Amino acid sequence: MKPFMLTPGHLASSYIISQIPSWYGDPLLTRDQVFVIIAGYILDLDLLIPTKKGAANHHLLPTHTPLFAALLLAILTVVFKKFFSPLAFLLSGIALFVHLTLDDVSFWLYKLGFRKECSVPQIFWLYPFDKRRKKVIKRAQNVTPIKALKLYFTHPVSVFLEIVLVGIAVFVSKF
Fold this sequence. Notes:
The protein has 175 residues and is an all-alpha fold. It is built from 8 helices and no strands.
């Protein structure tokens, strides 16, 4: 089990993304902002899907892939195109992919030599073509949510990133 991003970090990053237009003097409508924030978190609803390896391994599900994120955005765009602005859909797509990126940070820190664990990706960017995914699923341990949280809080880089994102979101909300 590798560290990952928790709800506050995903919501904070999505909030920051929803505020980008306001930095240029043209804020999104509140409903558009809420849509972007929800889009940045919605992938974690796969935590509710029962898996043999435990909910903490939800990153291994097809619902936590760029392919699924793109399909989800396409469906949301078709269903809600009259309710949200085109900019809200663009920013929602960015929020979806930032969510996946944040979930994969630990692996990239390992690849860059900043971590000793996390030798396998959390997100399989080339799903369904990445053959490593099946091997990782076979080796995945059954991790309870409590154990996953304990592992998370023992990795200061993950906690630091979460705190930074929440801090930036709080700072941005003041302006």
